[in-house]
Amino acid sequence: MISMTNVVKRFNGNTVLKDVSFEVKAGEIFGLLGPSGAGKTTIINILAKQLTAEGGTHTVAVDDFTQVGLMLEEDGLYGRLSAMQNLNLFAGIYGVGKAKAEEALASVGLIDAAKRPVAKLSKGMRQRLALARAILHSPKVLFLDEPTANLDPNTARGIHKLVFALRDEGTTVFLTTHNMEEAVNLCNNVALLHKGEIVEYGAPKEICERHDSFKTVPDLESVFVKLTGVVLE
Amino acid sequence: MRAISAIFNKQVSDFPKNISVAFLYVMYPVLAAVMTFFMGGEMEDGGVGAGFFTVVFAMMFVGSTPMISVANTIAEDNEYKSLRFLVMAGVKPHQYMLGLGTFVMIFSLFPIVVFGIIGGFAPEVYLTFIPIALLGCTTSVILGGVVGIFSKNVQQCAAIYTPLMLVLGFMPFLATFNETMMNISQVLFTHQIFLIFSYVSEGLVLGNFTMTSAMAIIGANVLVFAVLFVVAYKKKGLKG
Question: What is the mean pLDDT of chain A?
């Protein structure tokens, strides 16, 4: 469904992605893990056609890019408009109707904030609204950049449930995170990214088994530290 | 069509809340009304029509407000990355521009009609005044597109449109006092609009030659701005 083969990306002469290759199967939740600056957002931006790569190939197997949902750190929401007006704009563009916008808003627990201007929402609420916008049109592929960063544990669990539900409906979910526990609980497969290189790839449990890294639960974080020497924040 | 109407509807909800820009739609008619009320009589005594201030402020409005509205919206959408999500949702650049431009044109109609009321125009004057005002707004919208695309953010956008607004708004007015200024100013679309407004507000009929040359200059302005728009679009694009 999604693939990258030997992708290279440079910014001002600095190579930020070095021969990155991975494959994501249809209907799975794939996690790209790594600390800030590892290149996670750059990979999402390349796959979502927001950036061009200098080398290698990449594909997202959809007929039309409107079948892709995108949630980035820079949410692009309209601050003066209410949460519902923001969703209604995209409901109008996708032609999905206002009922679908209400449904999406309810699914991220923001129905009570429907009429509040986005500029007055907290960062976490804006993040949930951006997620609602990303899933509004039932995309085939969903890119989520750090979907639970800045969220309290309860809300993060709610987002996890939503991601599982989307996966069950057939959506392929590609997310980035630096939360290893989240990756273990959520992802079918993960790639560990360090300084623009994939250092490990596979199912979280298999990776932990390969590196003999189990506490009471698979300990992906210690695998990462072992491979890279970097402790995640 | 769906995308154009969604962008249009978004503007309907968003625009009145953008106080600094929406204020311009009120400011020019209010200034025209106040100046006409207090000084219209004096202008008439001095041999200039009582509608002088209406014509001046209508020209200033047409030359600057649609430009600022469009430029500011594009710059905001660029700065806050909203444009990126619109493009991802399948909105094409021409749909975005059409939705935005159509809204600005329709919204501009209200002050234009108010100018006519303030100027006390006869109904037949509207037949020339409104189409010419809308032609001016269209030119201004295209110029706004150029400014918006070239601006990385709202601050940079204001730095570009402020001098443009002053040149387009004040040059035709100052040209009435200075011949050198007149020679420079007459290549501006706002100067030609000022000329046409001045004639029709007095109930005068423009000669064919004056009208044709005015329309040719406005057309040349449209062409120049359209070319600049294409250059700006090819260089920077509308993708956020």
Answer: 89
Query: How many Cβ pairs closer than 8 A exist between chain A and B?
Result: 67
Q: Does B1 touch chain A (CB under 8 A)?
A: no
Report pLDDT for A168: 93
pLDDT in tens, A153-193: 888 888 898 999 999 999 999 999 888 888 888 999 999 99
> pLDDT for B5-40, tens place per residue?
999 999 999 999 999 999 999 999 999 999 888 876
B87 at interface of A, judged by CB pairs closer than 8 A? no
DSSP chain A: -EEEEEEEEEETTEEEEEEEEEEE-TT-EEEEE--TTSSHHHHHHHHTTSS--SEEEEEE--SSGGGEEEE-SS----TTSBHHHHHHHHHHHHT--HHHHHHHHHHTT-GGGTTSBGGGS-HHHHHHHHHHHHHTT--SEEEEESTTTT--HHHHHHHHHHHHHHHHTT-EEEEEES-HHHHHHH-SEEEEEETTEEEEEE-HHHHHHHTT-BSSSB-HHHHHHHHH-PPP-
CA distance A119 to A126: 9
Closest CA of chain A from B152, distance in Å: 15
**Least CB–CB distance from B90: residue in A76, A78, A93:** A93
- Tell me the ipTM for this assembly: 0.85
Highest mean predicted confidence (pLDDT) among A55-64, A152-161, B61-70: B61-70
Question: Are A217 and A184 within 8 A, CB to CB?
Answer: yes
Task: Check if the beta carbon of residue B78 is closer than 8 Å to that of residue B235.
Answer: no
Q: How far is Cα B133 from Cα B119, in angstroms, rounded to an integer?
A: 14
Which of B2, B17, B86 is nearest residue A95 as measured by Cβ atoms?
B2
